[in-house]
């Protein structure tokens, strides 16, 4: 996979994250994503995991804006440029890496440190995916075949989406669900 295919992935991610379909990303798009996740996981707005998720997304959003040099919204081109910079910036990488960890903790409602099928399906549905997409992704992510997605499997998929040039290694579903 070439850098152009990574750009194509980032562009698809932009389209999925642009929740109001106005051609720009704003904090409100992430706010709507958080609201969908909160509802899907039956979390309250003041629960510790919800507050943590909001903080992590706010830091991620601020990092994207900082990398883009733009105001308070991003075009698709600015988003791709900012995400590429954030993913490769070792000093700011913690903003990017924190997102999948916070989402994992948020979706792991039973606290087992692994996502069962039901938890993972809720995540995918909350971000616009359907049951068949969720189950296909679940089986691809469950690399050890133990019937659940470990934190390590979840995070690895996210990192592969951001940086791996091997198309076969990247499921992409985690990144679409969390960014």
**Secondary structure category:** mainly alpha
Percent strand: under 5%
> Total helix count?
9
Radius of gyration: 15 Å
Distance between the termini: 21 Å
In helices, the fraction of residues equals 55-70%
Largest sheet: 2 strands, antiparallel
**What is the average per-residue confidence, as pLDDT, rounded to a whole number?**
85
Strand runs, count: 4
Uncertain runs: none
Going across the biggest sheet, name each strand in turn: 1-2
Outline type:
globular
Helices and strands, in order, run as HEHHEHHEHHEHH
Oligomer: single chain
Summarize it:
This protein is 66% helix and 4% strand. It is mainly alpha-helical.
Would you kindly provide a written description of the structure presented here, covering whatever features stand out?
- By secondary structure, this protein is mostly helical.
- It has nine helices and four strands; from the N terminus they run αβααβααβααβαα.
- The protein has helices spanning about 5-15, 25-40, 50-70, 75-90, 95-105, 115-125, 130-140, 150-165, 175-179, and strands spanning about 25, 75, 115, 150.
- The protein has a two-stranded antiparallel ribbon. The chain has a two-stranded antiparallel sheet with strand order 3-4.
- The chain is globular and about 45 Å long.
- The model has no long low-confidence stretch (mean pLDDT about 85).
């Amino acid at each position: 996979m070439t850098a152009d295919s990574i750009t194509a992935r980032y562009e698809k991610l932009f389209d999925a994250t642009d929740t109001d379909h106005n051609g720009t990303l704003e904090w409100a798009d992430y706010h709507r994503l958080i609201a969908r996740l909160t509802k899907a996981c039956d979390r309250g707005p003041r629960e510790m995991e919800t507050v943590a998720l909001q903080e992590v997304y706010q830091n991620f959003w601020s990092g994207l804006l900082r990398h883009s040099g733009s105001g308070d919204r991003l075009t698709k081109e600015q988003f791709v440029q900012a995400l590429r910079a954030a993913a490769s910036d070792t000093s700011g990488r913690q903003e990017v890496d924190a997102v999948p960890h916070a989402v994992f903790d948020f979706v792991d409602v039973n606290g087992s440190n692994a996502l069962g099928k039901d938890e993972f399906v809720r995540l995918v549905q909350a971000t616009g995916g359907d049951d068949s997409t969720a189950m296909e992704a679940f089986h691809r992510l469950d690399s050890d075949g133990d019937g659940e997605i470990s934190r390590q499997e979840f995070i690895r998929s996210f990192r592969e989406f951001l940086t791996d040039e091997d198309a076969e290694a990247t499921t992409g579903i985690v990144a679409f669900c969390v960014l």
